Every structure is written in structure tokens, then in C-alpha cells.
Amino acid sequence: MITINDWRIHKEKWLDTDLTLMTSDDGWRKRSTKKDIPIWQRSFADDKNDLFRWRLPRVAAPHHEVFEVFVHKMVDYHQYWTAEYSGGFRVQEIDENAQIIYQQFSPNVPFIAKRDLLYVQWSRQLADNLIQTSFRSIILDTMPVPAGFERIDWWGGHLFEANADGTSQLVLIDRENQGGRFPAFIMNLIMPNYLTHQFDSIVRFFEKGGTASHDKLPDAKNTALNLKSLSNQFLPS
Fold first, then answer.
1. pTM of the model
2. What is the pLDDT of residues 66-110, one digit of tens each?
3. Is 4-182+192-230 a CATH 3.30.530.20 domain?
């Protein structure tokens, strides 16, 4: 995990790194093909959990609308493609292109602890038809891990690209260290099936009308809101 100062120093370099990973096949191996969508896998020396990638060639919404959901409305709709998601909120807006987000996940599986996720997300527009966003798990003294949770160490990114017919393409890179005693080899084994379920659910969400036809997660069901008062703390300059 990184600190806010790490992010300030390296954020442009990390955007460039993630863009290359999302647009080049160098260093990747094709792990599987699910429903005509290749799932790619790549190892890195710093973590036994591998990085995965998929590209959806057609999402039934304009690229800026998909971007809006994944960047500004994720905490309201994440439950539609991640069943374990139980709530979240924006901790702080850093500037118009960057924010810190907190989420919680409940696996509802015996002996598996709940997970939470605290990450910085930042974006840039590369062209009129192309937007990039990146994610890194972050450490904040004002947001410690709650009792009974394990914190996920996440590295990810999205690329949102317009198609000529008004639909869009969506690319994901995703590496998840689940923390606790969850073995990396198990995570690497299950990720392709997990990602297939995820992209199926994303495609279906937009085919059925996106946010216009889906309800937000109600506050009464948002398990993370009891921590929201901590988000009033200021970040270090």
C-alpha cells in the first residue's frame, strides 16, 4: 500500500505505467477466454498475487457515462457487479480528478473475515473519446482497519473508450491481495471465473439502462456509513 505522499510523487508515472499495461500485450499471457473475452494474466516480483486484465468491446452506454458510474457513482451501484459489496463512501475529494474512496465487503462465508478497501482514484482525459483512471490502495491514519476486517491491497485501472455507434469499450486491470491468510495461489486460480462473473454483470447493468433503471444502495443497507465521520479529517498537505 502507498501513502498520500507516495501518490503525489508518482501519480503521473503510475498513470503511464497503467496505460501501457492496458494497451500493450507485452509481458502478458492469455490465461483463458470466457464468452469470447480473453482474460490476461501477468506476474510481478513485489507480490505473489498476479495482475489480470480484460477488455469489453461493447458496453451499452457512452464512454463518459460508464466513466461517471465507475468513478463518481461506484459506492452507489457497486453491488450490481460485486455481490460481496456491502457499502462505501467517498472519504475525500483531493481535486476535480482525484478522490479517496472507502468500501466494505461481506463474503458471507464461514471462517472468512470481512474485507475493506481504502484507495486513491485519479483520472485523466487522453482524447475526446478516451478517459483513463487508476487506483492504488492507500494508508491513512484517520481510516484504520475496523475490528473484524482484513484490508485489501488493490492495484487497478480502467480505460473508457468511445465506439462510433455510441457504445463504448471498457478495459480493466486488477490485482487484489486479500490480506489475512488468503493464499495468493488460490486468488490467482479463481480470478478468471470471478472476473467473468464481474464483466457479465457490468454488461447486463448497462444493457438494462444503467443508473436510470437501477436503485442506489440505500443508506440503511450501507454498512460503511458508521465510519463516515472519520472522512471529515483533513489529509496532510
1. 0.92
2. 999 999 999 999 999 999 999 999 999 999 999 999 999 998 766
3. yes
The pLDDT value given to residue 22 = 98
pLDDT at 234: 47
pLDDT along the chain (237 residues), means of 10: 96 98 96 92 93 97 98 97 95 96 86 90 98 97 93 96 98 90 85 92 97 97 87 53
Report how far residue 81's alpha carbon sits from residue 70's, in angstroms, rounded to the nearest whole number.
11
**What is 90-153 written as a DSSP string?**
EEEEEETTEEEEEEEE----TT--EEEEEEEEEEEEEETTEEEEEEEEB--TTSPPPTTEEE-E
Interatomic CA distance for residues 38 and 63, integer angstroms:
21
The span from the first CA to the last CA of the chain, in angstroms, equals: 19
CA distance 140 to 78: 23
Ramachandran region, residue 212 (left: φ > 0; alpha: ψ -120 to 50; beta: rest)? alpha
Report helix, strand or coil for 75. helix
Give the separation between CA 212 and CA 208, rounded to whole angstroms: 9
3-class SS at 69?
Answer: helix
Residues 6+ apart with CB under 8 A from 119: 100, 101, 135, 136, 137, 138, 154
Instruction: Of 216, 215, 213, 210, give the one whose Cα is nearest residue 61.
Output: 210
CA distances from 211 to 65, 77, 94, 127 (A): 9, 8, 25, 25
